[in-house]
Amino acid sequence: MTSAAVTSLAERAITMARRYRDAAPREFDERYAVASRWSRRAASAANLAAALGIPADTVLARDDPHRRYGIDTSVTPGDLFEVTGEGSLRWQFIPDLAGFQPSWGWLLLGPCPHCEAPGVPVARVAGLADLGAHLDPEADHHGTDTAPVEFHGDPGHHPHCLHAAGA
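The chain above was modelled as a monomer; its predicted structure follows.
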Protein backbone atom coordinates (compact mmCIF):
# COMPACT_ATOMS: atom_id res chain seq x y z
CA MET A 1 0.00 0.00 0.00
CA THR A 2 1.22 3.46 -0.78
CA SER A 3 1.22 6.11 1.91
CA ALA A 4 -1.60 7.91 0.02
CA ALA A 5 -3.72 4.75 0.12
CA VAL A 6 -3.04 4.33 3.84
CA THR A 7 -3.98 7.97 4.47
CA SER A 8 -7.13 7.55 2.40
CA LEU A 9 -8.05 4.39 4.32
CA ALA A 10 -7.44 6.13 7.64
CA GLU A 11 -9.56 9.12 6.61
CA ARG A 12 -12.40 6.88 5.40
CA ALA A 13 -12.24 4.80 8.60
CA ILE A 14 -12.37 7.88 10.82
CA THR A 15 -15.25 9.31 8.78
CA MET A 16 -17.18 6.05 9.10
CA ALA A 17 -16.60 5.88 12.87
CA ARG A 18 -17.86 9.45 13.18
CA ARG A 19 -20.96 8.64 11.10
CA TYR A 20 -21.75 5.72 13.43
CA ARG A 21 -21.20 7.87 16.51
CA ASP A 22 -23.46 10.60 15.12
CA ALA A 23 -26.22 8.20 14.04
CA ALA A 24 -26.24 5.90 17.06
CA PRO A 25 -23.79 6.90 19.79
CA ARG A 26 -24.87 4.32 22.38
CA GLU A 27 -24.96 1.48 19.86
CA PHE A 28 -21.49 2.37 18.59
CA ASP A 29 -19.99 2.70 22.06
CA GLU A 30 -21.47 -0.68 23.07
CA ARG A 31 -20.76 -2.44 19.75
CA TYR A 32 -18.73 -5.20 21.37
CA ALA A 33 -21.22 -5.87 24.17
CA VAL A 34 -22.76 -8.29 21.66
CA ALA A 35 -19.80 -8.81 19.35
CA SER A 36 -21.65 -11.28 17.12
CA ARG A 37 -24.31 -8.66 16.32
CA TRP A 38 -21.66 -6.07 15.42
CA SER A 39 -19.79 -8.60 13.25
CA ARG A 40 -23.00 -9.76 11.54
CA ARG A 41 -24.03 -6.19 10.80
CA ALA A 42 -20.58 -5.29 9.46
CA ALA A 43 -20.61 -8.33 7.15
CA SER A 44 -24.19 -7.66 6.02
CA ALA A 45 -23.42 -4.00 5.33
CA ALA A 46 -20.41 -5.02 3.23
CA ASN A 47 -22.57 -7.58 1.38
CA LEU A 48 -25.24 -4.96 0.68
CA ALA A 49 -22.60 -2.57 -0.66
CA ALA A 50 -21.21 -5.33 -2.90
CA ALA A 51 -24.69 -6.31 -4.15
CA LEU A 52 -25.50 -2.71 -5.07
CA GLY A 53 -22.04 -1.93 -6.42
CA ILE A 54 -21.46 0.96 -4.02
CA PRO A 55 -18.60 1.79 -1.65
CA ALA A 56 -18.84 0.03 1.71
CA ASP A 57 -18.46 3.33 3.53
CA THR A 58 -21.84 4.50 2.20
CA VAL A 59 -23.70 1.82 4.21
CA LEU A 60 -24.45 2.28 7.91
CA ALA A 61 -25.94 -0.51 10.05
CA ARG A 62 -27.81 0.25 13.25
CA ASP A 63 -30.71 -0.82 15.45
CA ASP A 64 -34.07 -0.84 13.70
CA PRO A 65 -36.43 1.35 15.76
CA HIS A 66 -39.54 -0.60 14.62
CA ARG A 67 -38.55 -4.25 14.29
CA ARG A 68 -37.32 -6.88 16.75
CA TYR A 69 -35.94 -10.30 15.84
CA GLY A 70 -34.84 -13.52 17.44
CA ILE A 71 -36.10 -15.63 20.29
CA ASP A 72 -36.79 -12.70 22.58
CA THR A 73 -38.39 -10.29 20.11
CA SER A 74 -39.22 -7.81 22.86
CA VAL A 75 -35.54 -7.08 23.52
CA THR A 76 -33.37 -7.78 20.49
CA PRO A 77 -33.47 -4.95 17.95
CA GLY A 78 -33.52 -5.74 14.27
CA ASP A 79 -30.95 -4.52 11.78
CA LEU A 80 -31.49 -1.38 9.72
CA PHE A 81 -29.10 -0.56 6.88
CA GLU A 82 -28.97 3.01 5.62
CA VAL A 83 -27.34 3.78 2.31
CA THR A 84 -26.32 7.37 1.80
CA GLY A 85 -26.66 8.54 -1.77
CA GLU A 86 -25.85 11.78 -3.49
CA GLY A 87 -26.98 14.84 -1.59
CA SER A 88 -29.41 14.00 1.18
CA LEU A 89 -30.80 10.88 -0.51
CA ARG A 90 -31.01 7.92 1.88
CA TRP A 91 -32.15 4.38 1.18
CA GLN A 92 -33.14 2.04 4.00
CA PHE A 93 -33.04 -1.75 3.95
CA ILE A 94 -33.76 -4.51 6.46
CA PRO A 95 -32.64 -8.14 6.18
CA ASP A 96 -34.86 -10.43 4.12
CA LEU A 97 -35.39 -13.12 6.75
CA ALA A 98 -37.41 -15.22 4.31
CA GLY A 99 -34.49 -15.44 1.91
CA PHE A 100 -31.81 -18.09 1.47
CA GLN A 101 -29.29 -16.19 3.59
CA PRO A 102 -30.36 -13.06 5.53
CA SER A 103 -26.97 -11.42 5.06
CA TRP A 104 -27.38 -11.62 1.26
CA GLY A 105 -30.95 -10.41 0.73
CA TRP A 106 -32.78 -7.30 1.85
CA LEU A 107 -36.14 -5.58 1.86
CA LEU A 108 -36.16 -2.00 0.62
CA LEU A 109 -38.11 0.30 2.92
CA GLY A 110 -40.27 3.00 1.42
CA PRO A 111 -43.53 4.85 1.97
CA CYS A 112 -46.83 3.07 2.38
CA PRO A 113 -49.24 4.23 -0.33
CA HIS A 114 -52.13 4.05 2.18
CA CYS A 115 -50.93 5.49 5.49
CA GLU A 116 -47.82 7.29 4.18
CA ALA A 117 -45.61 5.71 6.87
CA PRO A 118 -42.09 6.35 5.60
CA GLY A 119 -40.46 2.96 6.17
CA VAL A 120 -42.29 -0.24 5.30
CA PRO A 121 -41.03 -3.11 3.09
CA VAL A 122 -41.83 -2.22 -0.53
CA ALA A 123 -39.47 -4.46 -2.53
CA ARG A 124 -37.29 -7.55 -2.17
CA VAL A 125 -33.71 -6.73 -3.22
CA ALA A 126 -30.87 -9.18 -3.79
CA GLY A 127 -28.93 -6.90 -6.11
CA LEU A 128 -28.86 -3.80 -8.24
CA ALA A 129 -31.25 -5.21 -10.88
CA ASP A 130 -33.95 -5.81 -8.24
CA LEU A 131 -33.62 -2.25 -7.00
CA GLY A 132 -33.74 -0.98 -10.58
CA ALA A 133 -36.82 -3.06 -11.37
CA HIS A 134 -38.61 -1.51 -8.42
CA LEU A 135 -37.52 2.04 -9.22
CA ASP A 136 -38.14 1.88 -12.98
CA PRO A 137 -40.89 4.44 -13.69
CA GLU A 138 -41.78 2.65 -16.95
CA ALA A 139 -42.53 -0.66 -15.23
CA ASP A 140 -46.14 -1.34 -14.26
CA HIS A 141 -45.60 -2.77 -10.82
CA HIS A 142 -46.13 -0.15 -8.14
CA GLY A 143 -48.64 -0.58 -5.32
CA THR A 144 -49.41 -3.06 -2.58
CA ASP A 145 -50.17 -5.89 -5.03
CA THR A 146 -46.45 -6.19 -5.86
CA ALA A 147 -45.10 -5.49 -2.37
CA PRO A 148 -43.36 -8.34 -0.55
CA VAL A 149 -45.49 -10.33 1.88
CA GLU A 150 -43.64 -8.58 4.74
CA PHE A 151 -45.37 -5.31 3.72
CA HIS A 152 -48.59 -6.57 5.29
CA GLY A 153 -48.45 -6.38 9.08
CA ASP A 154 -45.10 -4.58 9.21
CA PRO A 155 -44.66 -2.54 12.42
CA GLY A 156 -43.53 0.46 10.37
CA HIS A 157 -47.14 1.18 9.32
CA HIS A 158 -49.17 3.78 11.19
CA PRO A 159 -51.65 2.10 13.58
CA HIS A 160 -54.71 3.20 11.54
CA CYS A 161 -53.40 1.68 8.30
CA LEU A 162 -55.31 -1.25 6.82
CA HIS A 163 -51.91 -2.98 6.40
CA ALA A 164 -50.78 -2.47 10.03
CA ALA A 165 -50.25 -5.45 12.29
CA GLY A 166 -53.57 -6.63 13.69
CA ALA A 167 -55.60 -4.63 11.18
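The beta strands are 59-68, 77-84, 90-95, 106-110, 120-125.
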